[in-house]
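Need residues for this backbone.
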């Protein structure tokens, strides 16, 4: 069994904003400001519609066989099309179970729009049983199927008013949660050229999601206490072996 925990980070799609509102020659920062102002006027909220987001980082944690890995797709110079293509290529290659926090409400719809934008093919992901009967009753697109577990959605019993943030649930369970960075800071960090920091932050979100998922599997009876301890130790040993500053900080906060 292969299991992908995943997360994306986005910024305003200023290219779209320029075309949509005839803002040629306007600086990226000012285009983004115009986009959020228009959204505020329309809805009372600055958060942009999902089709107006551009992906700048995708991080995944892969649990397969006896191994655990965490990394960000592509490299710091990869364009959006490559990131999206790599994500869906991984699904075509592994047919993994997907694990996310609000992936059904944000990450996957954004990935759909960006795959559409860049012409990225993903036949395995979009399979619904027409070519593989196993997907008729368990596919990636159904809210209630297990090929994608949106932990925020499931733990809230599919009730929006019961939803919680990943940060608070991670902290509740003794995991690090956010470590000085948040999605609200990604655009400013991107403007500063801090794509590495964004990718690092995305990886820690993936780790928090995976650790919450392990507790969820314990609750469901798919892991016992010993199995949970083994999974935690696998994550710890993997992060120690990678010896990267943001992962070391995560480990330190986890142990605190």
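Answer:
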């Amino acid at each position: 069994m292969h299991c992908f925990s995943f997360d994306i980070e986005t910024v305003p799609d200023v290219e779209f904003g320029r075309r949509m509102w005839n803002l040629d020659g306007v600086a990226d920062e000012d285009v983004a400001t115009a986009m959020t102002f228009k959204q505020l006027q329309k809805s009372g909220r600055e958060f942009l519609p999902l089709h107006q987001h551009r992906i700048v980082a995708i991080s995944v944690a892969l649990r397969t066989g006896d191994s655990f890995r965490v990394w960000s797709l592509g490299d710091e110079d990869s364009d959006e099309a490559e990131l999206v293509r790599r994500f869906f290529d991984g699904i075509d290659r592994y047919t993994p179970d997907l694990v996310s926090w609000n992936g059904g409400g944000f990450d996957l719809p954004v990935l759909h729009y960006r795959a559409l934008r860049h012409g990225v093919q993903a036949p395995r992901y979009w399979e619904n049983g027409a070519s593989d009967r196993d997907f008729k009753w368990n596919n990636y697109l159904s809210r209630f199927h297990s090929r994608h577990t949106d932990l925020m959605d499931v733990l809230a019993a599919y009730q929006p008013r019961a939803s919680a943030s990943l940060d608070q649930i991670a902290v509740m369970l003794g995991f690090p949660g956010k470590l000085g960075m948040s999605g609200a800071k990604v655009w400013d960090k991107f403007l500063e050229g801090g794509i590495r920091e964004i990718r690092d932050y995305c990886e820690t979100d993936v780790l928090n999601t995976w650790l919450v998922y392990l507790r969820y599997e314990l609750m469901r009876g798919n892991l016992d206490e010993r199995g949970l301890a083994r999974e935690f130790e696998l994550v710890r040993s993997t992060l120690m072996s990678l010896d990267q500053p943001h992962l070391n900080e995560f480990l330190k906060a986890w142990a605190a």
